[in-house]
Design a protein that fits this description.
The protein is mostly helical. It has one domain. The chain contains five helices and four strands. The strands form two sheets. The protein has a two-stranded antiparallel ribbon. The chain has a two-stranded parallel sheet with strand order 2-4. Helix 4 packs across helix 5. It is elongated, with a radius of gyration of 19 Å.
C-alpha cells in the first residue's frame, strides 16, 4: 500500500492493521451468525447457515463508513481544502487503493478531474453508511460516479483515463 524504497517495511503497519480488522470482522460475524442459527433452531425455524449469513451480511452487519474503515487501516483522508493541488493525485490514489482493499470499487470516473473526484469522495461518498462486510463473505461495493445524479443535458467528455487504471475485484 505505502509506496517507499524501504523494501516493504512501510507496508507492515498497514498489513497488521488490515489483518486485525479482518480478524475482528470475521470473529464478530461468525459469533453473530452462530447466535442467529441457534435462535432459529430453538424456534423451529430454518437453521441453514448460508441463509443466516446472508441475513447478517445484508441486514444486520454493523453500519460504518468507508472513511472509518480507511482510518482503521491507517489511511488518512485529509479534508479536500487542505490538500495542495500538487498532492491531490497521490492522496486520491492512496484512497482509491485503500477502498479496493476494502472491496469497494469506483466506476465511471473519467469525466472528473482528480480534484473533483477527491472532493466528491471527501464531501459525501466516504461518509455514507455501509454495512461492515467481512472479507471472506464475497461482498463487494461498487460506487458509480455517473449514476444517481440528475442527467446532464450533455455528457461531460473524459478529462482523464483513470478508469482503465482503477482496481477491480479479483476473480475467483
Amino acid at each position: 500500500m505505502a509506496e517507499s524504497d524501504d523494501g516493504g517495511a512501510a507496508e507492515q503497519p498497514f498489513r497488521e492493521a488490515l489483518a486485525r480488522m479482518r480478524e475482528r470482522q470475521r470473529s464478530e460475524r461468525e459469533a453473530h451468525i452462530d447466535r442467529l442459527v441457534a435462535d432459529a433452531g430453538k424456534q423451529g425455524r430454518c437453521v441453514d447457515r448460508a441463509y443466516w449469513s446472508l441475513v447478517y451480511d445484508l441486514e444486520l452487519a454493523p453500519l460504518t463508513s468507508n472513511r472509518r474503515q480507511l482510518a482503521e487501516l491507517g489511511i488518512e483522508v485529509p479534508p479536500d481544502e487542505s490538500v495542495a493541488e500538487a498532492e491531490v493525485g497521490a492522496v486520491l490514489w492512496r484512497v482509491i487503493r485503500g477502498l479496493a482493499v476494502l472491496n469497494t470499487f469506483l466506476l465511471h470516473t473519467d469525466h472528473l478531474t482528480d480534484r473533483e473526484l477527491y472532493r466528491r469522495l471527501d464531501s459525501t461518498i466516504l461518509d455514507e453508511p455501509v454495512r461492515e462486510i467481512c472479507d471472506g463473505s464475497g461482498g463487494r461495493e461498487f460506487i458509480d460516479l455517473v449514476g444517481g445524479v440528475a442527467p446532464d443535458p450533455e455528457p461531460r467528455p473524459p478529462v482523464s483515463e483513470r478508469d482503465r487504471q482503477l482496481p477491480r475485484p479479483e476473480q475467483p
